[in-house]
Amino acid sequence: MAIPSDYDGVKLGDKMTQEFVDDIIERFKEGKKLPLKYVYQIILAVKDICYNEPTMVETHVDQGKKITVCGDTHGQYFDLMEIFRINGRPSADHAYLFNGDFVDRGSWSCEIALLLYAYKWLHPTSMFLNRGNHETDDMNRMYGFEGECKAKYNDRTFKLFSESFSALPLATLIGDKYFVLHGGLFSDDNITLDDVRKLNRHNQKQPGQSGLMMEMLWTDPQTAPGRGPSKRGVGLQFGPDVTKRFCEKNGLEAIIRSHEVRMEGYEEEHDSKCITIFSAPNYCDSTGNKGAFINIEDDYKLKFQKFDAVKHPDIKPMAYASSPMMGMM
Ligand SMILES: [Mn+2]
């Protein structure tokens, strides 16, 4: 496949380079697209890398290094740029974990997905991507990502992204202390980290309506003890006692999850054992919330940082969605 003759960006060979990543960051800010050949190359490379990762990736923070945990970014590319401006860009010494829902709603989902994938290809062992409930076909059809892929690139681009989403890990364990996943805990107290380790996510491409994968991507905390029905109609809610038992049984300090907007960008609930991190400030241009991210250095303390939304070009959220009046999920 040929690169268009008017393409004036950095060329990509068979390996990702820092120069290419730095260049696409600027191109995307200017509203430019990538040649299809590069889009396919990036998605296929990352699909292969992620497919071979475990369902729960296990990582540690070595001396002098750090990892930044981000929650939902939902296609808000200019706010992602703000995170990198404040906190630095991903590198071999500065790992990032994006905890799902990088696509849908915001109208720069292609740019976010391609940039995070380019970083994943450049730094496979210091860039981590957990799957969210929006890295799924049903959500992408309703909330804009499928339409955006077709508008900016083509149908095949969406199909390749969909395959790559099915390959993404479902959780990351940081320093044996923090269990990071998009939604939350399970319907059954007997589920342990070992069950997550053993889960063969390649047996199902989509999370469906029940089972471990669905629960990991969809559940939410509640203040009442025990478990309750989900307000979303998918998944369930888990109380502080559920979180406490899970952390004790698995030797964890806390679980870190995303999936719900929080006005301060983050919230510590369940006696600080259930932490929500959300990185899309002024969600959908309308919620007025701050975004936040968490830095973890080799002392394994959580350092929260809040940030505000920045200006973006005048394209509304859900601009590419087939049914823009859908509710909040
Ligand atoms: Mn979500």
Automatic annotation (TrEMBL):
Cofactor(s) the protein needs: Mn(2+); Mg(2+)
Molecular functions per Gene Ontology: metal ion binding; protein serine/threonine phosphatase activity
SUPFAM superfamilies: Metallo-dependent phosphatases
Coiled coil: none
Protein's UniProt keywords contain Repeat: yes
Hydrolase among keywords: yes
Protein known as: Serine/threonine-protein phosphatase
Organism the protein comes from: Aureobasidium pullulans EXF-150
